[in-house]
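can u do me a favor
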């Protein structure tokens, strides 16, 4: 209507509504055929735009009377951390989330998750998790260092995912977006130089260090013929873009995952002075008469099972990185609860780490509590470490298959930085808790026990997903360190 608002939807709006309804109908029918319980959600959980606004919209809807339901419970990033195992306790170990874009299978079944991780050819990484920016690298005169560029990319990765690198340089976008664009150029320029240097050295048969880039270059040149030219079978090796993607993933996981876990772990320890004393006893026994800087990995790390237990317990309750899988272009059979279920094609499979790691079926009635002692056993395992202060104590290493603990993923592609992260975490614990203790700073009128309870609740409420699990406002957790 001229001069007013038309009550009729435009053609574009009608097409969008039709697409949403059609997608929901197709995915609803696919979910019904599985026989699994399912929940219908109006928005695709993996929609990049939704990832930016999901929390704000859900928080707004929650304020509307009588509007709490499956949308506000399940249709936002990180709901699993709040819900823990409760949805699976209500509906079963396998739950399908039906959305207009895709179906998402949430799993809380240790056997099924282990099976998925072992069947690499059947259950793939989702395409959106493996894509790479194929834009040719550009040079830049920006003075930002590689480390600073990586920090900017990690801190602002959501706009990079949503808009893509090319669009970040638009002059009308916020300055922070243009800074992100420059950081991507610096990062890729650095990667290109390192890649070319390693490739040329390898082609000349120079002696190479056995580092990550060398391994990736070797994989990329796996199908190069004797003359140095690529052949048709070259497709079996890594492409240059895949090399850059792998380097970024390694940087991403190594830079942020351990730091986030450490921050949460130290806050959890601040709520438990008894556990601080427990690990301090072990540390001071192992390092009696030795400076921390003089100790070696071989002589020290195997003797710190209590400290390692703190690492595993932190990761159990707050797993930094969750790995998704997909059935890919064809349906895949999966045994669930003793029955074979055919999972539809293009279904994203999400091992619900938060549920697996807290379900009382696997962890007992105190499954939600921070209790590192659950990782200590009096029965000697086949592997170390053992405690010199308490020779009957041994670390309870989780099983390699069918274990409910998947803190570093599982199967042939489990986290390659697992051991490094564990050693780094334990090293920080040794450095901090050998001579110091930590506690939350009480607010006015608070007793110490009240301050610890407040901090524990803050960890629970403030921990959520960006791209990794982390405390969203760590500055609010004010801690005080004191000498032992």
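np, heres the sequence
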């Amino acid at each position: 209507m001229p001069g007013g608002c038309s009550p009729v939807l435009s053609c574009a709006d009608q097409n969008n509504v039709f697409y949403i309804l059609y997608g929901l109908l197709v995915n609803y029918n696919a979910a019904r055929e599985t026989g699994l319980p399912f929940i219908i959600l109006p928005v695709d959980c993996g929609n990049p735009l939704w990832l930016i606004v999901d929390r704000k919209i859900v928080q707004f809807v929650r304020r509307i009377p009588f509007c709490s339901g499956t949308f506000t419970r399940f249709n936002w990033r990180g709901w699993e951390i709040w819900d823990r195992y409760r949805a699976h306790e209500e509906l079963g170990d396998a739950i399908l989330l039906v959305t207009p874009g895709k179906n998402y299978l949430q799993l809380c079944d240790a056997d099924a998750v282990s099976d998925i991780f072992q069947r690499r050819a059947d259950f793939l990484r989702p395409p959106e998790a493996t894509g790479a920016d194929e834009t040719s690298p550009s040079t830049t005169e920006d003075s930002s260092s590689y480390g600073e560029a990586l920090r900017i990319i990690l801190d602002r990765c959501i706009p990079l995912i949503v808009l893509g690198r090319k669009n970040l340089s638009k002059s009308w976008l916020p300055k922070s977006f243009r800074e992100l664009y420059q950081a991507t150029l610096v990062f890729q320029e650095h990667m290109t130089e390192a890649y070319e240097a390693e490739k040329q050295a390898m082609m000349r048969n120079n002696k190479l260090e056995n580092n990550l880039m060398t391994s990736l270059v070797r994989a990329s040149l796996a199908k190069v013929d004797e003359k140095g030219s690529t052949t048709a079978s070259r497709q079996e090796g890594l492409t240059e873009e895949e090399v850059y993607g792998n380097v970024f993933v390694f940087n991403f996981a190594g830079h942020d995952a351990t730091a986030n876990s450490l921050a949460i772990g130290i806050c959890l320890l601040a709520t438990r002075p008894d556990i601080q004393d427990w690990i301090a006893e072990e540390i001071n026994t192992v390092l009696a008469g030795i400076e921390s800087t003089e100790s070696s990995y071989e002589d020290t790390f195997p003797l710190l099972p209590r400290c390692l237990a703190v690492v595993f317990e932190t990761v159990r309750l707050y797993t930094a990185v969750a790995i998704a899988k997909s059935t890919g272009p064809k349906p895949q059979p999966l045994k669930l609860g003793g029955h074979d279920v055919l999972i539809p094609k293009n279904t994203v499979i999400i091992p619900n780490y938060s549920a697996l790691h807290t379900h009382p079926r696997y962890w007992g009635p105190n499954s939600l509590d921070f209790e590192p002692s659950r990782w200590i056993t009096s029965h000697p395992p086949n592997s170390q470490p053992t405690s010199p202060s308490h020779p009957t104590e041994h670390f309870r290493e989780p099983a390699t298959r069918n274990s409910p603990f998947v803190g570093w993923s599982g199967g042939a592609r489990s986290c390659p930085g697992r051991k490094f992260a564990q050693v780094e975490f334990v090293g920080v614990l040794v450095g901090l808790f050998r001579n110091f203790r930590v506690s939350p700073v009480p607010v006015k009128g608070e007793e110490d026990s009240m301050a610890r309870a407040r901090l524990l609740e803050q960890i629970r409420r403030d921990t959520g997903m960006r791209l990794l699990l982390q405390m969203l406002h760590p500055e609010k957790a004010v801690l005080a360190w004191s000498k032992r």
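The first helix runs from residue 11 to 34. hope that helps!!
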